[in-house]
Amino acid sequence: MKPIYFLLFPMLALLSSCQNSGSPAVSAELAPVRTFREWYYPDGIILPNGTTPEQEVHGSTSRVEEFLVISNLTENDTTAKLTYYFEVDPPREVERKVPARGSTVYNRGKFPDETFPYGKLYGVKLVSPDPIMVQPTRAGSEEVPAGQLGGFHEFSTIAYPGPLGKRETKWMYADGHMSRQTATAPGISREWITILNPNPVKDAHIRITFNYVKEQQLLMLTVPAERVKTIALHDLEILKTNNAYYPVVESDVPVVVEQVRRPHNNLSRAPRSGWTLIAYPVGDVDFQIPVARYTAVRNNSRTGDTCCKHGS
Q1: pLDDT digits (tens, 9 = 90+) for 104-137
Q2: 296 touches 218 (CB < 8 A)
């Protein structure tokens, strides 16, 4: 039994030192085990040929293709069930085969038999009986008259691994910045937060705190069960122009949160670049992350969601 004590005592000592240190710790509640069999992606869009800036949908101003790459991490063929969630429409399910050790690209053009809606924001949940990895990639190009050089943007991210639990009830990211056109700054940056609520029965009641150095602003909204919702941050009157902030997204049910940013210039509404980021889940940390408390409430005139002025 002696070797067991040699192993046990250092482990206990290590746990004790972690508990007694001043560094932030995670909640004692065990987080769900990541099995690589469940993945989420909140912000998807597909637009047809001929789309122009005047027909903009969710910041996309031209033809947009979305490619969902699924990698099979096993030596055997497997399947993946994809559940698509929309802002208004009910969910749709499809099942796909994924060959052993293969990375398979799925997009709408590869399966023309599917009645997949163009121009509608969607989120995706992927479930497989075997370990897989999922990476969505979006590509779009600005359509311009012949002979002119148009813009092109492409961005990608790793989907978020499930299952969802307490950790996914609070999310944040560090780089929030609302860049609006001024006399000295002709470039603008348009930004969205997209929230996927895959819960089959419960609506998600959301609070987003926008943390500035000297103040906080609060936005409250609801994402219905099995729906996705995007918030156009550049339309929020409560956000300051050309000021850095970081948002904290709280929910009463587990959700998945994604940030999308698209810089433009003052000559065209078409994006000159774009990037996306799955926010970081912090619902299981036991140190206090600043969130707003409010005293006055008003509706945001552009979005219809509830904006709240922070009360000190």
Answers
A1: 887 765 555 566 677 888 999 999 999 999 998 8
A2: no
* DSSP, res 179: -
Amino acid identity, position 125:
K
Distance CA 116, CA 134 (A): 20
**CATH hierarchy code of domain 38-310:** 2.60.290.11
Q: Which amino acid is at 45?
A: I
Higher pLDDT, 107 or 254: 254
For the chain, what are the domain ranges? 38-310
Q: Which are the contacts of 255, defined by CB distance < 8 A and separation ≥ 6?
A: 164, 168, 169, 171, 195, 196, 197, 198, 204, 206, 223, 249
Distance between CA atoms of residues 115 and 89, nearest Å: 13
- Is the sign of the CA dihedral 112, 102, 39, 289 positive or negative? negative
Contact 175, 191 (CB under 8 A): no
pTM of the model: 0.80
DSSP 200-217: SS-PEEEEEEEE-SS-EE
Which range, 13-17, 203-207, 292-296, is most confident?
203-207
Tell me the two tokens of residue 116.
């997949």
Contact predicate 220/305, CB 8 Å: yes
* pLDDT per residue as tens digits for the range 38-60: 999 998 888 777 777 677 777 77
